[in-house]
Structure formats: C-alpha cells, structure tokens
Amino acid sequence: MIHFSMGKGYKYVVCMLMCLLVFSSCSRKSIPVESIVVHDTIEVVKTTQLRDTVIISPSAKVDLQLPCPDLNITAQQVKNKQAKLSVTPIQSGVQIDCECDTLGIVAQMKDTFTNTHQKSETVKTVVVKEKYIPKWVKILAIVGASSVLSLGFVIIRKVV
C-alpha cells in the first residue's frame, strides 16, 4: 500500500494539474483562409459613322485690271456650273471678273464615337480548414482522458 505524507498542499497542486490538463487539451483553432479575386474588364468600342452634309459658303468675287494698252482682245464670257468668268477689254488694258456663287458644298463627314464600358467583378472565397480526426482516435482520446482522471481521483483519495 502506498502512503503519501506531503500534507494538504499536495492535494491542491494535484487538483490544479488535473484541471490544467483537462482544459488545455490538444485542440487547435483553425484560421479561415480568404482569397479575394477582382476581375476588371474595360471594353472600348470605337464606331465611325459617315454622314452627308452641306457646307454653306459665301460667294466669292475677284476683279482684276491688267495694264496692257497694246493688246487687242474681244470680250468673252465663260460659265461652268456655279463659276463665271468674263474678260472685257478697256482703254488701258484688260478687265477680268471672276465670280463663284457657290452656296453649298456637299461633303461626307466622319463622326467617330468612343464608348467605354468598365465592369468590375469581385469573387471572395473563404476556405475553413477542418482537421479530420478518425473515430477510433477520438475513442482512444476519451479512454485516455478518463483513465488519467480516474488515476488522479485515486491519488487524491489516498492523500486525504
């Protein structure tokens, strides 16, 4: 038969060690792993569109006198679409009149449009790692803990 004679202080120390063993068992808290993926998409669409337009312009007229007294010329008039040219002899030379009465010029204009579309997509993934413990390991842990507790109670009874 085993007999311990260490006193009442030993009983409290053994109780504290047993409680410490029970409450600080081998467990680890798992830390969740987060991953955030951001997909940014920028779409640029350029569109060129042709359109017909009329450009209005004022009429233009040029009068010119050239001094040429020895020149023998007859009066002439030439007309082509919206332009008119007239050459007239005068005493000191030649009078030239040119007139363009264009009111509208038909032209093709290019209009360029740029459309920008931005799309942002965020994907958040949270992975919690869970440690797999087989059932037979859990059963062995329970048996071991209960045997340590029962051994502790037996030691405490013997001391008291």
Search tags:
single chain; 160 residues; alpha+beta; 4-stranded antiparallel β-sheet; two-stranded antiparallel sheet; 2 helices; rod-shaped
Question: Brief description of this entry?
Answer:
The protein is of the alpha+beta class. 26% of the residues lie in helices and 48% in strands.
Provide a descriptive summary of the structure in words.
- Helices cover 26% and strands 48% of the residues.
- The protein is rod-shaped and about 155 Å long.
- With 160 residues, it is an alpha+beta fold.
- β3 and β4 (83-90) form a beta hairpin.
- The mean pLDDT is 80.
- The strands form two sheets. A four-stranded antiparallel beta sheet has the order 2-5-4-3, with no helix packed on it.
Order of helices and strands: HEEEEEEH
Radius of gyration, whole Å: 54 Å
In the sheet with the most strands, the strands line up as 2-5-4-3
State the shape: rod-shaped
Helix content: 25-40%
> Biggest sheet: strands, sense, closure?
4 strands, antiparallel
Please indicate the percent range of residues in DSSP E strands (runs of 2 or more): over 45%
Instruction: Count helical runs.
Output: 2
Mean pLDDT score: 80
Kindly state the number of beta strands: 6
Q: What class would the helix/strand composition place it in?
A: alpha+beta
Q: Gap between N and C termini, in Å?
A: 14 Å
Uncertain residue ranges: none
